[in-house]
Design brief:
The complex is a heterodimer of chains A (93) and B (807).
Chain A: E1 2-9, H1 15-23, E2 28-30, E3 39-45, H2 49-61, E4 65-74
Antiparallel strand pairs in A: 1-3, 1-4, 2-3
Chain B: H1 3-31, E1 49-54, E2 63-69, E3 72-78, E4 110-113, E5 116-119, H2 122-135, E6 140-144, H3 150-163, E7 169-171, H4 178-188, H5 198-202, E8 205-209, H6 213-216, H7 218-229, E9 235-240, H8 245-249, E10 252-255, H9 260-274, H10 280-286, E11 287-291, E12 302-304, H11 306-313, H12 318-325, H13 329-339, E13 346-350, H14 352-355, H15 360-374, E14 383-386, H16 393-399, E15 406-407, E16 411-412, H17 416-425, H18 441-448, E17 460-464, H19 468-471, H20 475-478, E18 493-498, E19 510-513, E20 522-525, E21 530-534, H21 547-560, H22 598-607, H23 620-625, E22 629-630, E23 634-636, E24 639-641, E25 673-676, E26 693-698, H24 714-719, E27 725-727, H25 729-734, E28 742-746, E29 751-758, E30 768-772, E31 800-806
Parallel strand pairs in B: 6-7, 6-17, 8-9, 8-13, 9-10, 11-25, 13-14, 17-18, 18-19, 26-30, 27-29
Antiparallel strand pairs in B: 1-2, 2-3, 4-5, 4-19, 11-12, 15-16, 20-21, 21-22, 23-24, 26-31, 28-29, 28-31
Chain lengths: 93, 807
């Protein structure tokens, strides 16, 4: 699963410190942000769908990150299935 | 190189390509450059076809680009060409493609057979519905949705009101934005916001009234946060009953008691007048004053003078408002000071907190009133704007008028001229449309769950695109009796069209498998008057079929049986569609449904209705080209132009030159809006000795409404797996609770055992608890009350007195 997001930074934070935090997150790769230093393009590469969600959450929780917007997701290789907690009895008698 | 290595290398190269494409998209969005996402399909061997569609979920109306390969949706991307989201999506939006592929999609019509179900053919299913209607057409009701597409809702509307002369059709939007409708009607004489999302880019102050856009409309909220990240100054104010993710981004958090908003609004108006900071010119030029007519309650109320208005507000001093609302007096003064500054641009946002309110109409009108009184109206950034929760609550419910009292285009069944206009557009015999409004949602389900011999007149309900078994209030009264063998409801029959098994299908007698989202054509209308179109991209699974086809097929079955209502005044089928050669197309036969674009035909017919209230729609083909257009859309110099601001000269084409502001649907016939006084009134239920806590309900970021789609997306479900009771640390100590403990929650209507989350996603104050409604295994609406606003008939899901104890 591959996704890309844009992390929007708080106006009063140090971008350098935030970027250092982001680089510590496995699977996250920072793109070119020179044109807009407080809007950071990031790709997330994961073979585990859970990790994608966790990585997005970690980004959101980085000090100085105001918001994380998702731009793109490619899930062709995944097979979304029914989550066990909502599995219901068969409706055929 | 071996085949294995070759495939491995190709796989890596392809992954690298996708990753590069993903980064290119993010970099383009981050830098704000123009960018066309379909270049993602530029890889030579990549056979992805891209097309546009609005997201399936909320009322924001984000456009996504949908990538299809081998008949399956394989990718989604934010649409850079869409003004609403400018390439961005929220966590639900980027998983929207997966919503199609839960493993338990309904694929066959199922008829109840004892305790289980048996598969039947579509012909049998259509005949079964026709039998029920034919036996007692007046006892049939249609329960629809703000997720109906415009053509689906329009077909259902025409089938019921134009075909069966039956007005028992109402949508789930009655539960979410009916109070916004009545608030707009009472104030401006016509529904829907004057402003639009552009105001979020222009305002200096954004006030959120009981609204949590950081989770519920995240892309809109991110537009505002983004402005701040660029160095713009914008003040964010959160008025709410509990802290949420929105609170974290706001400079001011005003924590109020339930119904405190009524007092706050009156307090602001009181100070504007007392301080002489209201906009005298605006008020004298464009406004009247109104108060409720207690002897004859109605949406027009009674006219009062400015002096009467001032007198009525006199008690609402900041200190009195503090007592009623819990918000400190100095914060009330701060709000009044902000509204008193004409140089500021102020936008208000609200959604369920204001609408799901037994004084919802009043509260909507009061927010409009503050903006009008202060003159913060009619220029970019100065707007009172209600948001909707469903993708077509505006387009299908409010505009098509799929409410029990309404007809398309702002018409009502009680108005003879409106009925005649509808009969003319539909080519029906005069008098076909019933002048008596049908049952609204609560009445409809109460009647259905009441035995026939006790006056329960509704015998059959057909539910499309919604899940009332989870979302109706007070389920033990309005839905659950259907499943009780001793309830005396054996003759009642529930038909449910849906894509997955739900809390509603559990009690259904007939289940119909439906196509969803890009498995069918569609047109919807979002919160900012934007009408959006998409084409079918993939086939639905199994025998799932379009909801619109289902309605038309039943209509045709009745027509073939000789039902006169399914004939127009020339004896033709009411859904007669001809092809380019003027040959009738058998759209009731699934094999021919897509021989023509049924959506286009229905939309063009419906478009005729849109002019009366100046909600003009463009031809269907204009929407094919655009990422939505905001009505009124009028043709000028050969171009179809949308409207950013209504009622404002220079923006709204229907405002006469020199008028500056013109409320051309004024209920007083003088082009003026109405500023209302409404008193503070206590909620229908408040905590007491027996039930000492106030329960409020709502949504969470990861799940959309009842979770029937998002809980089938593993990533979202794992991120937020189940329902919970959110409680403050102080109350948790009082009740000796730890995270994960189970508590028994009881109201006067039902009970629920649910795990505790102390200071969870949101942080309620002492005395308040919160339960989200997305989890069908933990039905919070077993607890809620069905008290509703007297005008909108919308129930209050936000204020239920409960008690708890460790289970």
């Amino acid at each position: 699963m591959i996704a890309s997001v844009v992390a929007i930074l708080e106006p009063d934070c140090s971008p350098r410190a935030v970027l250092e935090d982001i680089t510590q997150i496995p699977g996250a790769e920072i793109g070119d942000f020179t044109q807009s230093p407080r809007r950071i393009p990031i790709t997330i590469d994961s073979h585990d769908p859970n990790a994608l969600e966790e990585t997005t959450l970690k980004l959101q929780q980085c000090p100085g990150v105001a918001f994380v917007d998702v731009v793109f997701v490619h899930f062709e290789d995944e097979s979304p299935g029914l989550v066990r907690s909502v599995q219901q009895e068969s409706h055929t008698g | 190189m071996s085949n294995c290595n070759h495939e491995l290398a190709a796989g890596v190269a392809r992954r690298d390509f996708i990753k590069a494409s993903a980064m290119a998209a993010a970099a383009a969005v981050a830098s704000g450059s123009t960018y066309s996402l379909p270049i993602l399909a530029a890889e030579p061997n990549e056979k992805i076809q891209w097309d546009k569609a609005p997201c399936r979920f909320c009322g924001t109306g984000c456009h996504v680009q949908v990538g299809v390969s081998k008949g399956k949706v394989v990718a989604v991307a934010g649409d850079m060409n869409a003004e609403v989201n400018k390439g961005l999506l929220c966590v639900k939006g980027y998983h929207v493609g997966s919503a199609l592929y839960g493993k338990d999609r309904l694929t066959k019509p199922l008829l109840r057979d004892g305790e289980g179900y048996r598969e039947i053919s579509w012909d049998q299913a259509i005949q079964t519905i026709a039998d029920r209607i034919e036996a007692a057409p007046e006892r049939f009701a249609f329960y629809g949705s703000g997720q109906w597409t415009i053509p689906e809702g329009y077909a259902a509307q025409k089938f019921m009101k134009g075909g069966l002369s039956n007005n028992h059709i109402d949508p789930n939007a009655r539960l979410c934005m009916a109070s916004a409708v009545t608030g707009f009607l009472a104030t401006y004489g016509v529904d829907e916001p004057a402003g639009c999302y552009d105001d979020l880019d222009a305002c200096d102050v954004l006030i959120m009234w009981g609204n949590n856009p950081a989770e519920m409309h995240p892309v809109l909220f991110s537009r505002v946060v983004d402005r701040r990240s660029r160095g713009e100054e914008i003040m964010l104010i959160d008025i709410s009953t509990r802290r949420t993710r929105t609170t974290e981004a706001c400079q001011h958090y005003l924590e109020m008691k339930g119904h405190g908003d009524l007092a706050i609004a009156n307090g602001i108006a009181h100070l504007l007048i007392k301080n002489g900071t209201y906009n005298r010119k605006f008020v004298e030029s464009f406004c009247n004053f109104k108060a409720p007519d207690d002897e004859n309650p109605n949406l027009n109320g009674k006219s009062i003078s400015f002096e009467d208005y001032k007198q009525a507000l006199a008690p609402y001093t900041p200190e009195y408002v503090e007592k009623l609302s819990g918000v400190p007096a100095d914060k009330i003064r701060m709000l009044a000071d902000l509204f008193g500054k004409p140089e500021l641009k102020i936008t208000s946002l609200w959604c369920m907190g204001v609408n799901q309110h037994t004084r919802g109409t009043a509260m909507n009108a009061l927010i409009h009133g503050i903006h009008l009184l202060s003159g913060h109206f009619g220029t970019p950034g100065d707007a009172p704007t209600s948001l909707t929760g469903q993708p077509s609550a505006c387009g299908t419910v409010r505009e098509v008028g799929t409410l029990a009292h309404a007809l398309p285009g702002g018409r009502v069944v009680a108005n003879e001229v409106h009925r005649q206009q509808a009969e003319e557009f539909w080519n029906l015999p005069v008098g076909r449309i019933n002048p008596q409004p049908g049952f609204h949602t609560v009445e409809m389900w109460q009647s259905f769950c009441t035995p026939t011999d006790q006056g329960g007149t509704i015998g059959t309900i057909w539910v499309q695109v919604t899940n009332p078994g989870q979302t109706l209030p007070n389920l033990n009264k309005l839905f659950n009796p259907k499943g009780d063998n001793k309830a005396g409801l054996e003759d009642k029959f529930l038909i449910v069209s849906d894509v997955y098994p739900t809390a509603t299908t559990k009690l259904a007698d007939l289940i119909l498998p439906s196509a969803m989202w890009v498995e069918k054509n569609g047109v919807v209308g979002n919160s900012e008057r934007r009408t959006q179109q998409w084409f079918k991209m993939v086939d639905p699974p199994g025998e799932a079929r379009d909801d619109c086809w289902q309605t038309i097929a039943v209509a045709r079955e009745l027509f073939d049986r000789g039902n006169q209502g399914m004939r127009d005044r020339d004896g033709q089928f009411i859904f007669e569609i001809k092809d380019e050669n003027q040959q009738s197309v058998a759209i009731w036969d699934w094999n021919h449904y897509y021989d023509v674009n049924v959506d286009k035909h229905l939309f063009e017919e419906y478009r005729q209705f849109s002019r009366l209230k100046h909600k003009d729609l463009a031809p269907y083909d204009q929407y094919v080209q655009a990422r939505g257009l905001r009505w009124p859309v009028v043709e000028k110099d050969g171009q179809w132009k949308e409207t950013h601001l209504r009622f404002s000269e220079g923006y709204d084409p229907y405002v006469e030159p020199g008028s500056e502001i013109q409320f051309y649907h004024s209920t007083t016939g003088d082009d003026r809006a109405q500023i209302w006084y409404h008193p503070w009134i206590a909620p229908a239920e408040t905590p007491d000795e027996d039930y000492p806590l106030m329960l409020t309900t709502g949504r969470v970021l990861e799940h959309w409404h009842s979770g029937s789609m998002t809980r089938r997306i593993p990533e979202l479900s794992r991120a937020m797996p189940g329902g919970y009771l959110e409680i403050s640390a102080e109350d948790a100590t009082v009740y000796d609770l730890r995270n994960g403990d189970e508590v028994l929650v009881e109201s006067r209507r039902g009970s629920l055992v649910i795990p505790v989350w102390i200071d969870g996603r949101g942080r309620p104050p002492r005395g308040t608890v919160f339960i989200p409604f997305f989890d069908e295994t933990l039905l919070v609406n077993d607890l809620t009350l069905d008290a509703f606003d007297p005008f909108s008939k919308q129930p209050d899901y936000k204020k239920t007195a409960v008690r708890i104890r460790k289970a």
